[in-house]
Amino acid sequence: MDFKFDDSMAMLRDSARAFAEKTLKPGSQEWDEHEKIPDAVYKEAAELGFFGLSVPEEHGGLGVGPLAYAAAMEELARGSASFQVCATVHNSLVCAAVAKYGSDEQKQKFLPKMAAGEWIGAYSLSEPGSGTDAGSLSTSAVDKGDHWLVNGTKAWVTNGGFAKVFLTFVSTNKEAGSRGITCLLVEEGAPGFSVGKKEKKMGLRASDTRELIFHNAKIPKTALLGQVGGGFKIAMSQLDSGRIGIAAQAVGIAQAALEEAVSYAKQRKQFGKKLSEFQLTQAKLADMATNIEAARLLVYQAAAKLAAGEKCTKEASMAKSFASRIANKACFDAVQIHGGNGFVREFPVERFYRDVRVTEIYEGTTEVQSLIVAREVLG
Fold first, then answer.
1. Active-site residue 260, yes or no?
2. Which of 51, 67, 250, 301 is found 20 to 30 A from 219 (Cα to Cα)?
3. What is this structure's pTM?
4. 242, 246, 252, 258 alpha-carbon torsion, rounded to 10°
5. What percent of the chain clears pLDDT 70, i.e. is strictly above it?
6. What is the CATH code of the structural domain delimited by 7-120?
7. Any idea which architecture 233-378 has in CATH?
């Protein structure tokens, strides 16, 4: 499979790399400490077009293909995984869903503002009692004629504290199970809708993660995305692209860990020699580099199939599972190479070690990816 980048794809990748080097990487440690990314960073990213990657050109976005998108996401994650998760949720889960399933009126209303970064999107499927088992969600929406009456709580919502539009999955027919799930485009400030406390997390601390609370919330009928009862299809259809985005994130974090480990190994001396001269150190670095390259190729393969309009469920799950596992190992080894210094916040590998852990959990756990791959292989 040919993964050669044309000029426009290479330009986007290089632009993301430059933004990561200039803005994300220098600030990421401070943002982690304060658990917040400055507004100016989001503004700069918007001006560079990173919030319009999945928005078609006719609605003000860049409309880039999955392969270029994956490469850009890797570069952003290499600079700051906390920023990248904001961008990938906004693009691959929210903008892409509106572009694919939205009415003409919804596209005209939401996409230009989202492409410009004026409105950031959030994706709300999980609940306190339902994560992987998405079909059992309990947040309900009752048709009241001129509006939906929504009650329930959503959990782990990335961008929750500053998003303007929330892609929210609710049950409109409990007895129908997953066939009774409907998707609503909930806007900030809707009556009865509020955002809960900011979660205190192990990693991705600068990423804003919240609960959403619906207490007799009145959501207009125009908020319906797609068809009543068609929400589960929307959720599942976006997961392949979402998993590619998280796989790219894992590769980006792993690449950053490798670069820090190489730099440290070339400088640090023990027993009169640089760490890079020890064969055991060399073996760790070689395994890290090999696994990262293999993971990157899996990400590109899944993205290429998605771009070609082919089913890529197996490939996306393979990429997400493998990339997240090798990224966790790469960050573990990077800390090990740093020794005691890897255990303190002065060195970035400590943050990478915390940030990377969630890549094996969100967008479907590693165990779920194994089930999906096995199902696809067995037929």
1. no
2. 51
3. 0.95
4. -160
5. 99
6. 1.10.540.10
7. Up-down Bundle (1.20)
